[in-house]
């Protein structure tokens, strides 16, 4: 619809106490193409029409009317929030300037004089006011659309943020579960030996008893041995629990100590798989960060090495850990002989949920979490390469 058509389609309210005037105005407007015209013979019915139609775009208002005059009606319209912006065209026989001034002071936009000699003046002013009104409406619509768009965008961003937060939460949870699964596996390894010992001691006691040899000495030494084993088993649980409890704040820690902590937990499992773990310390650097998280990263990498070694049924399995400094940075390299990382996944292996392991054997979060911990939380770097029939991971700390 063109501007002219739109203007001709706008709703005009004519208010005059003379039916003759109303008819005259209406005819002039209709002759010019206006189609939507309402009329009111007094202010009260004008208010009523304004209340019922929210699309009135112009009020042509007579000044001299019984009961409520035009000035009063003008004041009323301009005081009502939803009506305020409707332009008012004063149509008045009064030519005294004072009245006109009052009308403008009250917010009227323009005026025409009665009696109308011809339609030119009326049509020009009506058109002008409606045109301004149309522009205002279009601008408002534009602003409203923009506001809605902005709001939608904001809501979408909010929703995305929330979704990501939940995803992080889920991932953390999965990683924790996987860690717990690992933890139980390690505890099982650590416990196998002491459980055997306790079993043997019980058997021994029983045999002594059957042979009538169960002396107080045997009883005491056996019980002490059993309690020692139980103490060791209980300590294992504490160690693991402690290991998987995250640090609350950064602290200074020794890299060597972190390696020792990790190995003290996984040593038994490595031994069981005949994996020789060697540690070579060319330096003994200390760094600033979260020691337990750091040790977990080493654990993730060592576990991956172990898995690769077991998968490839390596004959003489080895993991070589080296600590050194490079340009003031503390580096740990972990080199296995498990066959190496296929070229096509060397970039992808850090993606969350990327795993080449059998269903149920890997969450694919190990390296992702490790990268997050080292690079995002501690400002370090993790990378890997293949060398001598195995993978070599580097963990660098500032
Ligand atoms: N030392 C390695 N040798 C060969 N491939 C490796 C090695 N370390 C990692 N990868 C590859 O990278 C993939 C991703 O490792 P990541 O630790 O992120 O997950 P995962 O070990 O599969 O599962 P989990 O969440 O249980 O650690 C592995 O599935 C494996 O294909
Ligand atoms: Mg892993």
Automatic annotation (TrEMBL):
Molecular-function annotations in GO: histidine phosphotransfer kinase activity; phosphorelay sensor kinase activity
Keywords: Coiled coil, Kinase, Phosphoprotein, Transferase
Enzyme Commission code(s) on record: 2.7.13.3
Annotated CDD domains: HisKA
Coiled coil: 139-170
4-aspartylphosphate: modified positions: 62
TM segment ranges: none
Source superkingdom: Bacteria
Occurrences of domain Histidine kinase (ranges): 186-398
Entry-linked PROSITE patterns: HIS_KIN (PS50109), RESPONSE_REGULATORY (PS50110)
Pfam families linked: HATPase_c, Response_reg
Name under which the protein is recorded: histidine kinase
Organism from which the protein derives: Desulfurispirillum indicum (strain ATCC BAA-1389 / DSM 22839 / S5)
Lineage: Bacteria, Pseudomonadati, Chrysiogenota, Chrysiogenia, Chrysiogenales
